[in-house]
Design goal:
Layout (H helix, E strand, L loop, with lengths): L5 H7 L2 E5 L4 H12 L4 E5 L6 H8 L8 E3 L6 E3 L3 H11 L2 H4 L23 H11 L2 H15 L4 E6 L15 E7 L3 H9 L8 E4 L13 E7 L8 H11 E12 L5 H17 L9 H7 L3 E8 L6 E7 L9
Parallel strand pairs: 1-2, 5-6, 5-8, 6-7, 8-9
Antiparallel strand pairs: 1-3, 3-4, 9-11, 10-11
């Protein structure tokens, strides 16, 4: 069986599922489709030379998880559970089927930017948001979030909103409103529930940083916390951020970065296949500060925290006044 592109899947009007025989998530997804009478075409990526690289490209390099391309050709679920499958399939069904279950994964406040694929890592989203609520994590990250987010001003873009962990830290004296984007459908559910914690207006959108659905020079500040480690194309992402940031605008970054020591960096490199598989495409060995400078930003201030395998970097950068166009 040959692989089918999202465009071809649209013509077929069926769900396209890439599977491996030993994958439990794949078996459960097939059982869910069978139980609910949803049509699908299962492609064994082990028997298809074109399927494996295609799937690894769209799901962040993970090989043995269920990856489903839906008939609209623009949305993908990775490692889905029953809730995510129900939300996606019933939202695309006819009126009679929609009445069977409420779609909790979308709202009138959410939209998908052109060119972006909607993805979902439900297990990682649940794990991440549970961990971030723990007292130890709050003691570690809340002061860092407050330090970075508290510098935002004017109209703000937050890239990778996650579960809305940054929302409480925006200063209403300095911030007019926040456009918060997040590509992961499951994360958006958590973020939407956190909107009430924000002291400023928050508009949520389902969008990826590689395809920002905003005009040039739209924002006074851009906030990015623990995001650039997981994007597929960090260089292009930074260029997109610079494009939508006003000349002279602030780029506020909190990121865990490549370790400065050779041994620690080597260990990071060796563990990246594991971190990308288990931690939502996390490349914890990226030299983000170097990429930032190479993308045309000027570093106003920086502060490194911690060491070993998990050092963090806080950066206040700016888009130079003379940089009016994307290079």
């Amino acid at each position: 069986m040959t692989s089918v592109s999202p465009e071809e899947a649209t013509k077929l009007r069926s769900n396209l599922m890439y599977v491996t025989p030993w994958c439990g998530d794949c078996r459960r997804a097939k059982q869910w489709f069978d139980a609910h009478g949803s049509s699908y075409e299962a492609i064994n990526r082990e028997h298809d030379d074109q399927a494996a690289p295609f799937v690894m490209q769209i799901n962040g390099g993970m090989r043995s998880v269920a990856t489903i391309v839906f008939p609209d050709g623009s949305s993908v679920l990775v490692e889905p559970g029953p809730r995510e499958l129900a939300a996606k399939c019933f939202s695309q069904a006819g009126p009679a089927e929609k009445g069977k279950e409420t779609n909790t994964m979308t709202s009138n406040n959410l939209h998908l930017s052109p060119g972006a694929k909607a993805i979902s890592y439900p297990r990682f989203a649940a794990f991440y948001n549970r961990i971030m609520k723990q007292p130890q994590a709050r003691r570690q990250f809340d002061p860092l979030r407050r330090e970075i987010v508290g510098q935002a001003h004017g109209v703000v873009l937050e890239v990778g909103a996650g579960g809305g962990q940054n929302f409480p830290f925006y200063d209403p004296r300095n911030v007019v409103r926040v456009e918060a984007i997040e590509p992961d459908e499951t994360m958006l559910v958590y973020a939407e529930s956190s909107q009430g914690d924000a002291p400023v207006p928050i508009q949520l959108s389902r969008a990826a940083v590689e395809w920002l659905p905003f005009s040039d020079a739209s924002f006074d500040s851009v906030v990015v916390t623990l995001v650039l480690c997981s994007v597929h194309d960090p260089e292009h992402s930074l260029c997109e951020i610079r494009r939508v940031l006003k000349p002279g605008g602030s780029f506020l970054l909190l990121e865990h970065v490549r370790a400065p020591g050779k041994v620690a960096a080597w260990i990071q490199d060796a563990l990246v296949p594991l971190t990308t598989r288990c931690l939502g495409n996390d490349h914890w060995n990226r030299d983000t500060e170097r990429l930032l400078v190479e993308s045309g930003f000027e570093v106003v201030s920086r502060r490194g925290i911690g060491g070993g395998l998990h050092p963090f970097l806080l950066v206040h950068a700016r888009r130079p006044e003379e940089s009016h166009a994307l290079r």
